[in-house]
Amino acid sequence: xxxxxxxxxxxxxxxxxxxxxxxxxxxxxxxxxxxxxxxxxxxxxxxxxxxxxxxxxxxxxxxxxxxxxxxxxxxxxxxxxxxxxxxxxxxxxxxxxxxxxxxxxxxxxxxxxxxxxxxxxxxxxxxxxxxxxxxxxxxxxxxxxxxxxxxxxxxxxxxxxxxxxxxxxxxxxxxxxxxxxxxxxxxxxxxxxxxxxxxxxxxxxxxxxxxxxxxxxxxxxxxxxxxxxxxxxxxxxxxxxxxxxxxxxxxxxxxxxxxxxxxxxxxxxxxxxxxxxxxxxxxxxxxxxxxxxxxxxxxxxxxxxxxxxxxxxxxxxxxxxxxx
Length: 324
Fold this sequence. Notes:
mainly alpha, globular, disordered N terminus
């Protein structure tokens, strides 16, 4: 039975919500352990129990606290899911949700060295399978699987240098780069933003990345990103899109745009473009309004961006006007 919760000075509704969350958290943790066991012991990725469980986990995986718990004990679900990924789009989609926002300290546990070669090879062939141009290879790529795998590349490239090294060492990595660049004309805005974020994480300060993210392209990228973030704030009010329910899809677009901005702040050209942008100053003020809103997901993304803008004296001086 649940023990008593402290109630002094806390509204009853908040106490009830905390108790409900605590119960749900335990149930989801138990469910994750059960799915991981079925995947590890019996490889039942297509079973009804596993599919139903994965859909439940995916639905709540946006909660940062749940992702932290899973990240702290990756063997329970994440590693079995990684091994099962090539067999199931749902498994990859769930992985992409669970590993979103993974930090570098947790990455080594989720991505042990022994699985990196096989994982990276599979990601390159899945996302870039038709990138070399033509024929049966292009037809063999499942668009839904490729889209889900792209989410994994974006997540892991942001948090793991070992993953980036292994991915770049793959003999077919040029096909991957070509596929990512080709995705910049995709009709789905999330696909475009995630592809840009992946390219920035992998190549930003390398020769190819400097060509891709030259000043003209950076200006266009920033303009698109500002438009999307401003639209999200305008549609959902100053609190931004919520991370669950009907707003979830737009939250992921919003979050990936913030991630792209964070990645671009590692480029001196991008920092200079931000400092020169009047729109960026207004956007910062709009985003600052989200910090007082209820919920953790949107404020945490805003804080990530603000922290990246203060990372280093040179960057802070260059952006000084943007904070005025």
